[in-house]
TrEMBL record:
Protein's organism: Miscanthus lutarioriparius
Domain S1 motif as annotated: residue spans: 87-156
Organism placement in taxonomy: Eukaryota, Viridiplantae, Streptophyta, Embryophyta, Tracheophyta
UniProt-annotated stretches for the region Disordered: 156-224
Protein name: S1 motif domain-containing protein
Compositionally biased spans, kind Low complexity: 210-224
Gene Ontology biological process terms from the UniProt entry: mitochondrial mRNA catabolic process; mitochondrial RNA 3'-end processing
Length: 224
């Protein structure tokens, strides 16, 4: 019977489904599923896998028809469930969307964080669209992870501090303006006039004193 049956095939049939099982931390399962299953649906649509099943214990089972789609989904899930650390810097990250309050930046495939408008630039921005657009690439630093696992990013933290440059530059004294010089010149004659008038007043006082003393002397001589 063994002679009549064909030997087993050494290669899998191209129509045979591929199944990959991976483990993630149980508290990261919700990141794969997303709100209302939005994230897991987008992974299936983007990669072309047949299904992604998750368990409460962190088990993730991916079913795909080809190796390429399977590897893509594995990469996205690995990036979604990675454990970023505050202080890490991510280079050349793409801005995926822009909101009135900031920009959502993709630090890894399928993993985005919010860069608030106050953290996008060292200067003041009225709107994020004034300086950035979807598709732009920027460097960001992870500055906070909230209780929901959402990432807060900053591009401003990696930019040169303009304030420190202005403070380090030596202070220059303001040169006197032409108008100031004219004002200073115009004040000098006034001081001279005041000194002349005070001298004239002193001379007048002395004259009055002499004239007042003269009659007194003449009366004394007559009495003698």
């Amino acid at each position: 019977m063994s002679k009549s049956s064909p030997p087993p095939s050494k290669a899998l049939s191209p129509y045979a489904p591929l199944i990959h099982v991976m483990k993630v931390k149980p508290n990261k399962v919700n990141l794969i599923i997303g709100s209302g299953g939005k994230t897991i649906k987008s992974i299936i649509e983007e990669t072309g896998v047949d299904a992604i099943d998750t368990g409460d214990d962190g088990t993730v089972k991916i079913t795909a028809r080809d190796l390429s789609s399977l590897e893509k989904s594995k990469t996205i899930i690995a990036n979604l469930t990675m454990v970023p650390k505050v202080g890490e810097i991510y280079r050349n990250c793409e801005i995926k969307s822009i909101a009135p309050y900031g920009a959502f930046v993709e630090i890894a495939p399928g993993r985005e964080g919010l860069c608030h408008i106050s953290e996008l630039s060292s200067g003041w921005l009225a709107k994020a669209e004034d300086a950035f657009k979807v598709g732009d690439r920027i460097d960001v630093k992870l500055i906070e992870i909230n209780d929901k696992g959402q990432l807060r990013l900053s591009s401003r933290a990696l930019l040169p501090d303009a304030d420190s440059e202005s403070n380090s530059s030596p202070t220059k004294e303001k040169a006197p303006q032409k108008d100031d010089a004219i004002k200073m010149t115009s004040r000098r004659p006034r001081r001279k006039r005041q000194s002349e008038s005070s001298g004239a007043e002193n001379a007048t006082t002395k004259t009055l004193q002499k004239s007042a003393a003269a009659p007194a002397g003449s009366k004394g001589s007559e009495a003698a």
